[in-house]
Design brief:
Elements lengths: L8 E6 L19 H13 L4 E4 L7 E2 L2 E2 L10 H9 L6 E7 L5 H15 L3 E6 L4 H4 L13 H17 L6 E3 L6 E3 L5 E5 L4 E5 L11 E4 L4 H10 L2 E4 L4 H14 L11 E6 L1 E3 L3 H15 L2 H12 L25 E2 L3 H4 L3 H15 L3 H8 L5 E3 L1 H13 L5 E4 L9 H13 L12 H5 L7 H7 L1
Parallel strand pairs: 1-2, 1-17, 2-5, 5-6, 6-11, 11-12, 12-13, 13-17, 14-16
Antiparallel strand pairs: 3-4, 3-15, 7-8, 9-10
Helix pairs in contact: 2-3, 3-5, 9-12, 13-14
């Protein structure tokens, strides 16, 4: 007897902090104007997606002492955008990336509890950490937290926030039927937390929200990150988007859940995914190639190479060969606020490898950078992409995908119109929302469900 088909989860990443957007396309719109967020969110909701996902940029990136203006410059506040979107959507989940290194638990818990109330139970929190002293300077805490302690603080941060969410219990909240005002006993909202990173006590001033707590996402891929997710998260925003890598990651993370008394269905694996959609597979391949060429301009290629060479390469021709000079291995890096800096620590070894690859294939600097970048996750006609997505989910390479289109705000439109109806026709994706909250969309139990607490104990 074959096992029942898994239901696919789909979400949309508003591409505001990334290197995937094609700025030169005339259809590319603003990343700040609210109309862009509205179009993107309402398209996702029309397609019955689980949620919209916002990344977070806390400081403008710099390179060579100047603002890095080849990527997003400027980023509206996450809570402001999500709160505004709550008023123009009815069902779509609203997921925000909020840093646990430069914020405080009371502040963040209050903001998410408020968003959950405003949206009728659709809030989610992507809990991230920051290793970056450059970003920390905006908070007057540059370098204050050693990198090895970031998950220690994050775990205590989340645990403390949960204590605040849980400080209001359902049986402590009463409403005066005549006036409509809240009545509560003196203990409702009271909290005391003493730990390594936080020593706070007081009274939380936002009553229990529709979901009890926001849905918790985690985006780390290190061993520490996987353990953090297995212990505390409801979903992982993963970068493993090939079938084999996805299956390995899926198996590894799901097996960790038992250590924390959790079932495999209590944590969803949702990789980021890009796509190139056209009428035929051949046309989609051509589109994918063209998009990759547009994503990596000559200037972008040079700036990317500087991440490894750690020196000004503006005099080099992006359509010419790689530099003969070696990288500068000094500690002071030319790029600030770029995550790739940490990926390229052994600069001499990487430079040798890149030179060898470029020589073997006769690649220019731009050719190399284009090839180093990931190909689109899904390339093909609507049917090809739908079948591939379904194959990934049914073969336990993921539980669904967070789609990152290369155009804003219209990049989801064609996917919603052509791919989603096929998944619905095959019975692997919803035709209507099952309930009012994001936990309903994701198949996650409410924290106050006693049966779920017993199963997790």
């Amino acid at each position: 007897m074959s096992k029942p088909l898994k239901q696919i989860h789909l979400a949309a990443h508003f591409p505001g902090v990334n290197n995937t957007t094609v700025w030169s396309d005339p259809r590319s719109g603003s990343h700040i104007e609210f109309s862009s967020f509205v179009h993107f969110a309402q398209t996702a909701e029309r397609a019955k997606f689980d949620f919209l996902f916002l990344a977070e940029g806390l400081r403008l990136r710099e390179q060579g002492g100047k603002i890095y203006d080849l990527d997003v410059v400027g980023r509206p506040d996450t809570f402001t955008v999500l709160s505004a979107l709550a008023a123009v959507t009815e069902h779509l989940g609203l997921t925000g990336t909020i840093n646990s290194t430069f914020n405080e638990p009371y502040e963040v818990a209050r903001q998410f509890a408020s968003l959950d109330h405003l949206s009728g139970g659709r809030a989610a929190w992507n809990v991230v950490t920051s290793w970056d002293a450059f970003t920390g300077e905006n908070f007057r805490r540059g370098g204050f937290l050693p990198e090895e302690e970031r998950y220690s603080r994050a775990k205590e941060f989340l645990a403390t926030a949960n204590e605040l969410f849980d400080s209001w219990r359902g049986d402590e909240i009463l409403v005066d039927q005549d006036t409509g005002t809240f009545l509560r006993d003196a203990k409702a909202g009271a909290f005391v937390h003493t730990g390594r990173h936080f020593d706070i006590h007081g009274q939380f001033n936002v009553p229990r929200s529709p979901q009890g707590r926001p849905v918790i996402f985690q985006a780390g891929d290190s061993d520490e990150g996987r353990e953090f997710a297995a212990a505390d998260a409801d979903a992982i925003f993963s970068r493993h988007a090939t079938l084999e890598a996805g299956q390995a990651f899926y198996t590894d993370v799901k097996r960790r859940l038992a250590t924390y008394g959790r079932r495999p269905d209590q944590l969803l694996i949702l990789p980021a995914a890009t796509f190139a959609l056209a009428d035929t597979d051949a046309e989609a391949e051509e589109l994918a190639y063209e998009v990759r060429r547009q994503q990596v301009s000559g200037a972008t290629a040079i700036k990317h190479l500087e991440l490894v060479w750690n020196r000004d390469l503006s005099s080099y021709d992006p359509d010419g060969p790689l530099p003969d000079i070696d990288p500068d291995v000094g500690d002071d890096h030319i790029a600030k606020g770029r995550a790739q800096v940490r990926m390229y620590r052994d600069r001499l070894a990487i430079a040798r490898e890149w030179r060898e690859r470029a020589a073997a294939y006769n690649w220019s600097i731009r050719d190399l950078v284009i090839e180093l970048g990931n190909r689109q996750t899904f390339i093909g006609s609507a049917e090809t992409i739908a079948r591939t997505i379904n194959e990934f989910v049914q073969s336990d390479a993921s539980d669904g995908f967070i789609l990152v289109p290369h155009l804003t705000p219209t990049g989801l439109d064609e996917f919603a119109d052509k791919v989603v109806p096929l998944l619905q026709e095959w019975g692997v994706f919803r035709t209507e929302y099952e309930g009012p909250t994001l936990r309903d969309h994701l198949g996650l139990a409410h924290p106050d469900d006693a049966r779920d607490r017993e199963a997790a104990s």
